[in-house]
Amino acid sequence: MLLLYPKWQNLYSSKSVYLDRKITKIEFAGNINTSASDIADIIDMKPGMVLSQDLLDADMRALFQSGFFFHIDILGELDGEGVKILVQVKERPRVKDIEFIGADEVFPSDLRDKIPLKENEVITPKKVQLSKEVILKKYRDEGFFLAYVRFELEPLDQKTNTVKVKFIIDEGEEIPVSKINIFGNSEIDTFDLQSVLDLKESGLIESGVFKEAAFETDKQKIVAYMKSRGYVDAEISNDGTNWEIKWENPKKKDKRVVVVNFKVVEGEQYFYNGYTTKHDMTLGPNNMPIYLNKEGNPPGTPLEEWRPVYEVKYLQDQYEFSTNDVGDVFDESKFQKDRGSINEAYSAKGYLFAQVIPRRKIIELTDESLARYENCQKRSSPEAVKDCEEEYVALNIAKLRKVYDSKPSLRGKKFIHVDFTIRENNLAFVENIIIKGNKKTLDRVIRRELLFKPGDLFNSTLVNRSRERIFNLGYFKEVNFNMRPGSDETKMNLIIEVVEQPTGTVSMGGGYGTITGFSIFTQLGENNLNGSGQQITGRIEFGPIRRFLQISWTEPWLRDKPWSLTLSAFYSSRTLFVGATSITENNNQGIKEAASYERAGVGVSAGIGHRFLVNWTHFHRYSPSFFASTRPSSLVSDQVLAEVNRGWQFRSQLTNGVAYDNRDNVFNTTQGFNLVLSIDNVGQYLAGESHFDQYSPILEYYHTWFDYTLFGLIRKNILRRWRVVQQFRTSSVFTYERAPKYGRQDKEKIPYIQVQDRLFLGGYESLRGWFFDDKYYPEEWRNGAASRVLFTTELRFPIEPSLLWFVVFMDAGAMYEEVNRAIGERKEAFQNYDSVVRAQRFADPAATYLFETFNSSGQKLPMSPYELNDPGRLVLSGKNISLQNFKYSWGFGLRIQIPVLPLRIYFAQKILYTGDAEAPFSTYPDTNAFQFVFGIGDLRF
Predict the structure, then answer these.
(1) 814: which of 118, 534, 595, 721 is 20 to 30 A away, CA to CA?
(2) Per the confidence metrics, is the pTM higher than 0.70?
């Protein structure tokens, strides 16, 4: 018998042998994907404990309830005076992969995010059934009521105990809405109610697909619209409100349609009769107010010194309704905004728990009800008289009497007066910040964007800005903040729920610029490396004019401090065209050959930045590089040849700057400022061949004029995303030549400001409709300048808010030189310009007049060439930064925001500033056509 006695025995069948013994050891068997430590955490049994029936039963229940196992045995073996435990399990399979077959109309990623069945989790019948229900609900919400879902498993992988899951989906077809019926309304027009609905009847313009979620939302919209028209008691009747699927043609039975029915109850229409606002002055046992600014009125504060957080007058100024509106329809939505404005004001100061208690008083506009307050002296006691007189003022009885006399149609109507009682309560402090939904992104990446921390006073302004900062990271397609009560009346918990989106990029595309020409590029990047927020990008660009290679890495938060570090390296090669020269004697029929050369550069950059206050950043960057001019064509100037002969030249640049950015959305801005001021110190004490200081201020302002609800005239919430936004932008670059601090440098041979540092004007990048060598430019501008000033404004009308906009724009730009850049022959020309012009006019006045007044086609010139090229107009000075010296254009076009390949298509026309107040702009006499301007890549706008 001893030989046949098994080593392990089932504890339930041999309880008397093992119960009440001390557990010496616990072992696990059969587990593949669930670690022994995880199983140990599920059960209560631990070595050293005494084994009991209750402990055994509880652990068996806990193991089954975990859902990880479909078979469990708990075995025992005597171990001296104690007992060893063996937990033997058979695991449920885990999900190796989830595949959605047949999901064409719904993104599989959306389904994957919503279903409870996840990869690397166990499969349970409950999770499978819930997943099927979630998928079907998603299809119903999208209008596919005939969708069907089937669940399949591939053969089990015995080694890993994993299985591939398939949801096979028959999407069926979308069912259109054939008819929307609205019953029960007698005063509000049916067409007005239908206009606020998301559901539409199918027709030539509307597809009219039925969505159950939209049906539920539309019930709320109907009620909200009726309440905004004064029907405060309006509601949707469940009896008669429904939808049903029918055959469009019962005889053919070839197409199904949905008929939607809404039955409404209007009730009476109410009118506005003012607000009364007061603080709750209820006193406590210590004879101090319970609800009034406890922090500002500590116990013992004299009555005459009691102060609320906000005076009543300040709160009244926030209301949309005013005393002038007495007699207007009572708009429930406006009332809710007014109530919310009080809460918003208090939450901005940390009083999140402030209560706004509205009490409505109904007054019927009849002679009897008004007379009741107009004859206060007839009341029975002095106290009653006083109360009556106070109500007479508070209830605007005098105004109601005027309404009664002037508007007979309102007699007998009911007017609503609202008493707002405010309980300021306690300040609210943030107790916990809980983050949900981030699978890849680390919690600290989100937390470091918050402008508050646990223990801080709640501030709605900082909370809203924090949400914008998290969204502007670009890691999430949704960022939602929710508040929950904390452990006591002074604390609250903040729940941050995010929905992640892909942050890696592998893109190929093209770019185009007036100066840089066409190019193709390949770019690899990851904007959230390993969920840490680090960014790494590599870019290769190639074209007939420009070749470019760059790699960069950025750590936006060094050691979780608001300091960033950026390291990058680049190589560039660019073909520069420096004019054309005739190579035949006949200039009219001559053959011209372009002169060009290449400018190559290689360099590195290291920069740091620091965010401070709420929206400010200062940044600092050092960029050493080497440049050389190579491959000159045969007709380049001696100056270019001299530059080629100098070979590689060193350029040393230090950039310092400060920026302010409070834009609501950096990807599609609708409001806010973006201000950047940077100062570049090139050469001088930093060595190298280039020596100058450069100041670059940029200011952008975005303003939303209105959305497509047209100030609420169209009551459709979805149209609030269609915002008409105007961008105002000015960007300037001012370059001042400096001298080297070490050794000597002949600037006639090696200019302090070299070719790659010159600025140009025109084309898609700066002044649309103009070319960088335009004939209406001063000749000095065609070879580049040291300083440039740009202004632009662009009015954007969304066609699809996240993808396509129609735009109308106006650009203005000018360039300027420094006097000390005029050296050699240029210096002599600058100094003698006025005398040369005078001599020319004196020597041949007739020919000079024709030259200054008409072009070769006999059309009148907008400006004399001598005046256009006057160096006095080109020098950077306060008087020259004027409207007369700028070049202008206006036009219209499309912005197409494809993520990999943003497209800009414009039609731009040059316009001439006239100085006439009534007609400040006109077209050029020989150039009034619109120029087609095409851009790939978001270079400026």
Answers:
(1) 595
(2) no
Tokens matching residue 237: 């009747």
Specify the residue for token string 């949400």: 467
> How far, in Å, CA of 661 to CA of 615, rounded?
5
Please choose, from the candidates 470, 482, 479, the residue with its C-alpha nearest in 3D space to the C-alpha of residue 434.
482
Q: In this structure, what token pair is assigned to residue 579?
A: 């004019």
Nearest 10 degrees: Cα torsion 224, 230, 232, 237: -60
Residues 167 and 164: their CA atoms lie apart, in Å, by 10
Phi, psi for residue 514 in degrees, rounded to 5: -60, -40
| Gap between the Cα atoms of 287 and 301, Å rounded | 10
Distance separating alpha carbons of residues 36 and 56, to the nearest angstrom: 18
Q: How many CB atoms lie within 10 A of CB 239?
A: 6
Q: Do the Cβ atoms of 934 and 517 come closer than 8 Å?
A: no
When pLDDT is cut at 50, 70 and 90, the band that residue 791 belongs to is very high
Provide the 10 A C-beta neighbour count for residue 81. 8
Query: At how many degrees (to 10) do helices 367-374 and 397-406 cross?
Result: 150
C-alpha span between 48 and 38 (Å, rounded): 19
Residue recorded with tokens 């709160």: 315
Exposure class string for 317-342: b at 16+ Cβ within 10 A, else e:
eebebeeebbbebbbbebbeebbebb
Place of tokens 């039609």: 907
Q: How many residues does the chain have?
A: 941
Q: What is the pLDDT of residues 159-207, one digit of tens each?
A: 888 889 899 888 887 888 889 999 999 999 998 898 888 888 887 667 7
Mind listing the pLDDT tens digit for each residue in 524-540?
Answer: 888 888 888 899 989 88
Cα torsion 136, 140, 146, 147: sign: negative
Encoded tokens for 839: 């001599």
What's the DSSP call for residue 328? S
Q: What angle do CA 702, 706, 710 make, to 5 degrees?
A: 170
Contact 112, 166 (CB under 8 A): no
Asked if 82 contacts 24 with a C-beta cutoff of 8 angstroms, the reply is: yes
pLDDT digit string, tens, across residues 705-762: 988 877 666 655 566 778 899 999 999 999 998 989 988 888 877 888 887 788 888 8
* Average pLDDT score over residue span 824-832: 69
| Cα distance from N-terminal residue to C-terminal residue, the chain | 91
Measured CA to CA in angstroms, residue 640 lies from 191, 436, 683, 749, 796 at distances of 74, 61, 21, 10, 44
